[in-house]
Amino acid sequence: MTEDDYLRSVERMLSGIAPAHRTAVVDDLRSHFADAEELGRPVEETIRNLGTPEEIADRAREEFGPSSEAIDARAERAWRVLQGMATVSALMIGVAVGFIVPTHTVANSEGGDSVLQHLTILQNDGLWAALLLLIPAIFAAVPLVVAPAARIAVAVICGVLLIAVSLIAVFTVGEFFLPVILLSWASLIVWARLRGSGFGRGWRIAGGVLAAAPVLLSIGSLVGPFGFEFGQRRRYADYSEVGSGPSIGIEAPGWLLVGAIVALAVLIAIGHRWAGWALAAVGFVALITGLVAGSLLALLFVWLGGWWLTIGLAHAVTASRRV
User: Are residues 30 and 89 in the same domain?
Assistant: First the structure.
């Protein structure tokens, strides 16, 4: 690598710090090369003594910190990722609940017998009722298209409207939109924190605890003085069974998921960015599973999916470690 190649590489990697600091670093490196040339040292030796461009850039960022432009750009990207996912989630939930997933059970008499039919909102209430479920997607999308100067006000208003819509329909389908509410408000928190003091170790640890909380609580309800152990009936000391019903517990695939969630939570607490993306992927899959399950557990999967999706994405777009 020549001196010019080395300096150009360093300058590219210093794009996140203020221009004045970037110029000062490059000028200081040029003086090192000039001094080494006067002493007759080869360029390769000088580069080895200075360190790789990555090492130079890391030291400069640690000393000077990112520029205000870089901070704003990072906050903007993080906000758009979370708010965009809120919009996508709202659209998915609205289409699924309104047009695909049966949410109404009606009894029809055929030949004197009562037959239960499972209908979607489209089939039971009509097209306009189903289209109303797309309103949360509009509320989630509006902040993405307004001017930056009006963003905070519009995002807060839309976030409040999302809560209001969910509460109005809380006894029907409003609960399904909890992931949208979580993502929308998380986007505002992330945007504000990244433009301010950022997210430190305490935030990472809190994120890890919150990610693991649902599975740890479920384990606590299954394993304990009044629960069941590992999918088997609890027995007395004389090995007689408690009750005669089927065993309740977590099967082997469930324990694998529990272990994966806990492991990702620990990695998030440490600060690994990829763990956030992995948890977000798990949450997205759980959300989709809940939407298509069509069972009593569907809403639980939607909530869990939205919880993990929000925590995972928030960590992924704010963590500084790429390992």
Answer: no
**Host domain of residue 57:** 3-64
Tokens of 79: 């906000």
Residue 240 has pLDDT above 80, yes or no: no
Instruction: Please calculate the CA angle 174-176-178 and round it to the nearest 5 degrees.
Output: 90
pLDDT per position as a tens digit, 38-59: 888 888 888 888 888 888 887 8
CA distance 5 to 10: 9
Task: Decide which of 141 and 35 is more confident.
Answer: 141
Lowest-confidence segment of 86-95, 100-109, 145-154 by average pLDDT: 100-109
Give yes or no for a contact between 248 and 268, defined as CB atoms under 8 angstroms apart: no
Alpha-carbon distances, residue 89 vs 238, 282, 291, 296 (angstroms): 52, 14, 11, 20
Element (H, E) at 109: strand 104-110
**Which parts of 120-168 fold into alpha helices (H)?**
121-125, 127-132, 135-145, 151-168
Total count of domains within the chain: 3
Tokens 């069941």 sit on residue: 228
